[in-house]
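Please check this.
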Amino acid sequence: MTRTELKHFCAGLPHVTHVVQWGDADVYKIGGKVFAVIGMGGTGATVTFKASDMAFEILSDSPGLRPAPYMASRGLKWIQHYDAPGLSDDSLREHIQASYDMVMAKLTRKKRSELGL
């Protein structure tokens, strides 16, 4: 997926906010909590997303994927898709959606109520 396609997908999820942080990174949040970061790497767009424990273990060793350099070094289960072959477009969308769902599920009751969830 191109950076534009990734940005369009993330922005299209309900109640998402977008900010540019950390230089030129597009950061997507639900309820003020990050679920995806899109940036540029040496070979094109990169996307970083939260992963379940099992997905983190499986994806960490896959070609084109790695534990997210900053987040994973702090014990967080985040994966960075940075190069080919990586994930198919459909699989990448599924993992970003799962990241969104995991982050949304951890929001406080008050925050979820404010968002109408």
In short: The radius of gyration is 14 Å. The chain has a mean pLDDT of 91. DSSP finds four helices and six strands in the chain. The domain at 3-111 is CATH 3.90.1150.30 (Aspartate Aminotransferase, domain 1).
